[in-house]
Design goal:
Layout: H1 15-22, H2 26-29, E1 33-37, E2 42-45
Antiparallel strand pairs: 1-2
């Protein structure tokens, strides 16, 4: 059975919001992401 969604509202944040939240700069963005836990926003970069 097919259905049509007229409006979809994504739940979450976009990359720009994460950059602002964690104060990420270009140097940070060039690193690999090691882990992310969103219960208490924590970002681990290496």
């Amino acid at each position: 059975m097919a259905f049509k969604l007229d409006s979809v509202v994504p739940w979450g944040r976009n990359m720009e919001e994460y950059k602002l939240m964690f104060r990420l700069d270009d140097n940070d963005m060039s690193k690999k992401l090691q882990g992310l836990a969103m219960v208490q926003p924590v970002l681990i970069m290496r």
